[in-house]
Design goal:
single chain, eight-stranded parallel β-barrel, about 350 residues, oxidoreductase activity, acting on paired donors, with incorporation or reduction of molecular oxygen, LLM class flavin-dependent oxidoreductase, TIM Barrel, Luciferase-like_dom, Bact_Lucif_Oxidored, three-stranded antiparallel sheet, about 20% strand, alpha/beta
């Protein structure tokens, strides 16, 4: 059995060819797609976070609204850029959204991806300082966030509070039990996956890795997952970790699918550059169901993960993306033993 969810970047564009032309469109459609995903039997609705872009940016109002409209599926992010976050305020937002959703949040956090603007986190008030690393700043924000959602009490109470306080130091409220175990780190390398395990976070791995050893993408990602699991065991954590991988998968079951994605059946891994370093990008899977099943059965990273996040073309609208999810859950997943 494998959990299957969608991952939306939440693009909007005023083009007449887009079904999501405004920020309002994409936010409301994201909620509707979460509801539709639950109805077709999918397991999760995940949203990407980008700043200074016509994409989803502030996830917690969306997660809370989707949580109030659904009852079963997981709701998450993939990923929140921690360079931009006030970890204490984020902890309040996350706790509240998780309580509204009944403990269904699965939050992917990370250092983040290449930005739309130079050093955008500085406009949000965060500066690693001369000679310091923005990635270290992101990890420090994450460290504080993890501690406070885990119930750390650190604030000295006022001797004359407006309302009565419980005894001792105070912490962030509201607390949502179990949220600490539902935090994931988006790791772009094998080394970062090991660090993720040492911190006791679940592993989230996307359709690219910022390293390349010459082997196919899915094999490099499977090695990343294996290193994560070994490091988790060595760290002695009591619970079992979770691992997700993202894929672009498009079953062709009708003429509309073929018009949109028929040419993607020739897709292959690619090697490029991100932030000045080599990166390997995974292929897109597109084809008729029998072909897809055969190709996906050979993907070692999907086999090693417990959760599969399907990147969706959100600008094609709710109905079409619900159709894509239904095709995978109905036709592809059973053939591969995921259902």
């Amino acid at each position: 059995m494998k959990k299957i969810g969608f991952l939306s970047f939440g693009h909007w564009n005023p083009s007449p060819h887009s079904q999501a032309r405004t920020a309002s469109d994409v936010l409301l459609q994201s909620i509707d797609l979460a509801v539709a995903a639950e109805e077709v039997g999918a397991d999760g609705a995940y949203f990407r976070v980008h700043h200074f872009a016509r994409q989803l940016a502030s996830p917690f109002p969306l997660l809370a609204a989707a949580g109030a409209k659904t009852s079963r599926i997981e709701l998450g992010t993939g990923v929140i850029d921690m360079r931009y976050e006030n970890p204490l305020y984020m902890a309040e937002d996350a706790g509240a959204a998780d309580l509204i959703a009944g403990g269904r949040l699965q939050l992917g956090i990370s250092r983040g991806s290449p930005e739309q603007v130079n050093e955008g986190y500085k406009y949000f008030g965060y500066d690693p300082g001369e000679g310091n690393d923005h990635a270290d700043m992101a990890r420090e924000h994450a460290r504080v966030f993890l501690e406070v959602i885990d119930g750390q009490r650190f604030a000295e109470p006022s001797p004359r509070p407006m309302f009565p306080n419980p005894p001792g130091l105070l912490g962030i409220e509201p607390q949502s039990p179990g949220l600490r175990d539902r935090i994931w780190w988006g790791a772009g390398t094998r080394k970062t996956a090991v660090w993720t395990a040492e911190q006791g976070m679940n592993l989230m791995s996307s359709t690219l890795l910022t390293e390349d050893t010459g082997v196919p993408f899915h094999q490099l990602q499977a090695e990343q997952i294996q290193m994560f699991r070994s490091a988790w065991k060595e760290a002695g954590h009591e619970r079992q970790p979770r691992v997700s991988v993202s894929r672009s998968i498009f079953p062709i079951v009708n003429s509309t699918d073929r018009a949109y994605f028929g040419a993607e059946s020739r897709s292959a891994d690619q090697v490029g550059f991100i932030d000045g370093g080599t990166a390997r990008f995974g292929k897109t899977y597109a084809g008729e169901v029998d072909q897809l099943v055969k190709e996906l059965a050979g993907d070692e990273a999907i086999a090693a993960a417990d959760t599969l996040l399907l990147t969706i073309p959100n600008q094609l609208g709710v109905d079409y993306n619900a159709h894509l999810l239904d095709s995978i859950v109905r036709y592809v997943a059973p053939e591969l033993g995921w259902r």
